[in-house]
Amino acid sequence: MAESAVSFAVERIGDTILQKAIFLKGVHEQVDRMQRELKRMQCFLKDADAKQQEDERVRNWVSEIRDVAYDAEDAIDALSSM
To answer: What are the domain boundaries of the chain?
Structure first.
């Protein structure tokens, strides 16, 4: 009886560890993708900085992209510490 309880517990723990590993692998891939996207955003922002003085639409895009970039950086920091 005790053997079956221990066997069940070990199986459950193993399943949980496997699920966590799969989740963390997915998180790592998402962090990598977000970092690539942030680099693209930085390139856009460098180009747009000069143009935002002349065009209000560009100024709005720059503001929105900066906000998204800050949120993405915060998410990367949080996920990297997992």
So the answer is: 2-80
Q: Kindly provide the residue ranges of all beta strands, DSSP E only, lying in 2-56, ordered along the sequence.
A: none
Q: Which residues of 43-52 are buried (b: 16+ CB within 10 A; e: fewer)?
A: eeeeebeeeb
Buried b or exposed e, range 5-20, using 16+ CB within 10 angstroms: eeeeeeeeeeeeeeee
Token pair 């709005």: residue: 60
d(CA 10, CA 51): 61
pLDDT tens digits along 12-67:
887 778 777 777 777 778 888 888 888 888 888 888 888 878 888 888 888 888 88
DSSP assignment letter at 55: -
Q: Which residues contact 19 (CB under 8 A, 6 or more apart)?
A: none
